[in-house]
Design brief:
The structure holds two protein chains of two kinds. Chain A is mostly helical. Chain A is built from twelve helices and two strands, in the order H-H-H-H-H-H-E-E-H-H-H-H-H-H. In chain A, about 75% of the residues lie in helices and about 0% in strands. Chain B folds into three domains: about 180 residues, P-loop containing nucleotide triphosphate hydrolases (Rossmann fold, 3-Layer(aba) Sandwich); about 160 residues, Rossmann fold (3-Layer(aba) Sandwich), CATH 3.40.50.620; about 70 residues. Helix content of chain B is about 55%, strand content about 15%. The chains are: A mainly alpha, B alpha/beta. Chains A and B meet through helix 3, helix 5, helix 6, helix 8 and helix 9 of A and helix 3, helix 7, helix 16, helix 17 and helix 18 of B.
Amino acid sequence: MTGFESFIDIDVYAALDVIFLGFVGGVLSGFIGTGGAFFMTPGMMNLGVPGVIAVGSNITHKFGKAIMGAKRHGELGHVDKKLGLYMLITAVIGVRLAVWINKELAMKTSVGEDNVVGDLYISVLYVVVLSFISIPMLIDALNFEKKKNRSRRSIAGLLAKIRLRPLIYFKTADVTLSFWLIAIIGLLTGFLAGSIGVGGFLGVPAMIYIFGVPTAVAAGTELFLAIFMGAWGAVNYAWSGYVDLRLVFLLYLGSMTGIYVGVYGMRVVKERMIRMITGIIIAICVVSRAVSIPVYLTRMEYLHLSPHTVEILMVTSKFVLFSSGTVGVTVILLYVVRAYRRGRALRRLLKNNNH
Amino acid sequence: MAVITISRQTFIGGQELGEQVAKRLGYRYYTREDLIAEAARKGLPISMLEEAASKPPGLIEDIQGERDRYVACITMLLCEKALKENIVYNGHAGHMLLLGIPNILRINVIADMEYRVRSIRKRFGYSRMEARKYIKKIDEEREHWVRFLYLVDWHNPIYYDISINIGRMGLERATDTVCKMGMQSEYQFTDCTVHSLRNLYLASKAHFVLASDERTREGRFTVNADDNVVQVTSQPRFADCLKQVPEVLAGIEEIREVYTTEAFDTVLYVGERFDPRSSGFSTTVAMARERQWAVELVSLPAAANDEELLHVCKEIKQDGQNTDVAVEKHFKEQDVGIHLCLEVLRKAGCSGGSNHFYDAPRALIRALQRRVDCKLLIIGALFMEKPLIIRKRMRAELKKLFTEHLRCAVVEADELEEFFAVKGYHILQTVIWFLLSVGILFGVHEFQTEIASFFTNDTDMYHHFLAIVIVLVITPLFAYCYGSFTQQVLRWFNLD
């Protein structure tokens, strides 16, 4: 079990850091339509928050944010509640499994000062999962023209062929799906959400490309699902004392504003640029986490790095992550401001002409 | 003139049915393969698209541009043929290509599995098991194809006029049924059909040209046409491509004028009458200008009776030709209003073009269900010939119908201002949300040591349960208060 000392001291600078993480996470979340945790959780770990608390606080943060998002999508008819609830059946198992693993690893090492095995596990999982996402994204953005006639064979294609009975029709999404396919995707989504908070990275593309659900409905349904996954994850982590409410609220301060900026940015930035910015930021998050892995291995005494090297690696990890967020968000903000000003100028011009 | 579209399962004799019907009615028969061959000659990568449809794309691959290009090309070719002669079109999803065009007979031909297995065994000499496997594979590919292109389930009966079980009826009786239906006046072209078809033809042609041209192929456009005037709309991120549109479309002879609009969202303004001086329309224009919307005018015919939103007034001329006299008269009267409204919208830089819709609202819903670009539907002047109380009821029913079936917000034009307005109580609400958020934050900050020790205290079950309750109540409460506050503030700056 975690102890009181596992919660970090939050002074003004730490609070500003967390708000910044929330803002960047919110902007990216609005910008790409899902996620944000891929930046916030490692960011919190860089501030000294143990991995399991960073994940627990982030999933709690996602729970409240999803309520707001799903409400808005629901008003627009973009939520297939039936599909969300079917996915939830196995997603709760995935979340529970993830929490159990995180908790067991954290408990094993809490005798000392930190949860080093848990942090190592979360970092490795981040590096593996986010590499799978960012590398194809960057290749795709760099070969935007060339890729058009490429032959493709994907796991998604194989999964989409699963038509094992029972088959269920989902009215809002207008698709008929095998229960077993939904069960697999639900389980994996839940596991990733519970482990590192990036369930949406799997859930949304899976709904679009494997289930054939329209993009808007996929995003809305994932948010609906995230309410329950988030609540269930929050319950599980809070039960074990791994939720830091102070971090949750500070993240909200940044993310609630950031998300609107991100959505605005998505509509004014070119598709290729969106992929490029997102791909680079995710890749840098991977690098940032990868850099911290030797630190954990040193603490576990598998590696023998000098304290000075460990210090350099920790600072590098933090610097790389925060600077990538700053640069990425600045680029998006520049686009947003430019488009906003251009729109205003255009309307003013038309108004003057009409007069 | 007339068009009959046949969508069918594999190996049930759909080909024979199409040929028989065409022969008996004296119509020209086209298959999907005919149009595909023509499309391939125009440079469409058909095999790549077919592969994309049968095998879902990788997680980040985008082939929307090629898909739009294909749909535009096939629609253009089908419209071109339908405008020249009577046709029977046999294809996977012909019924979706001409969605929204009235007086088209859309047939779905089905048969039970046993009939199909027999048919395929006779043709290829497969074993029963092989035949079933083959049918399943082809059905799946076809299903993916239709969903990939039109985002709908092709089995859904709402898109057809009739489903025929050829396994039970047999080819002869099925042919009789289709021919009898096809000869009915309901399924003969009227001036309205031709008008709609011409508009669709021109819009598809323009879209195809834009999707094929190097200068504009990376853009994503909404294109519509009315009386040889083409309106192209796209989001600000494709502003560079949009600038090139007039130049790219200059080569199309039929086009009289091209208008382009850069907008964040498309808003539909549905009405049977359009008056640029009406308060509802003026509010719409003001909001559109402020929020950078493209407003697309959708003209509906006046409903003939208050019983249904389903029927429109139709009269049959003495010579037996169905001319939708009332509908045509209505549209001629409304043309002036629409043109004036479009003029106002263009001056305000927020025109999304116009669309005449010659069918009942339910059919409009079918056509709009595929529209993913539409953010808001505004109900303008409808049922104006009805007494006020009936009009109110009918508008409420229509609003409910739209809300249930469309993936966008629905609002009446008169309520638009209120829908987006910032009023005194909004400011009060915002202040309350702000104070609540600050209060919660202050509390958490002041008692952070106590909170931290409380959450990590594992001495008894009571603490665990209380911790969960606090997390489940306080977190969404704070998210709601602070989220609503942020949303309201950003709304004042039109950033929501």
